[in-house]
Amino acid sequence: GRTVHSLIGALSRYKNTKFVLISPEELMLPAYIREEVIEANH
């Protein structure tokens, strides 16, 4: 989990980056990570 969170944080610094994440519901990305990525790209 933490590795993915860190990687998404690092990659979200680049413009026009798109993430497609597939996981079972219990391993879903936390909402706060998603919100940080959306904020960083606006």
How would you describe this protein?
By secondary structure, the protein is mainly alpha-helical. The chain has helices at residues 2-11, 31-40.
State the total count of DSSP E strands. Answer: 0
Total number of distinct structural domains: 1
Percentage of residues assigned to helices: 40-55%
Largest sheet: none
**Rg (C-alpha, Å):** 10 Å
> What share of residues are in beta strands?
under 5%
* Uncertain segments: none
Dominant shape: globular
Overall average pLDDT: 87
The structural class is mainly alpha
Helices and strands, in N-to-C order? HH
Number of helices: 2
**Terminal residue distance:** 25 Å
Short summary:
The chain has 42 residues and is mainly alpha-helical. The protein contains two helices and no strands. The model has no long low-confidence stretch (mean pLDDT 87).
Descriptive labels:
about 40 residues; mainly alpha; about 0% strand
Which helices and strands, and how do they pair?
Layout: H1 2-11, H2 31-40
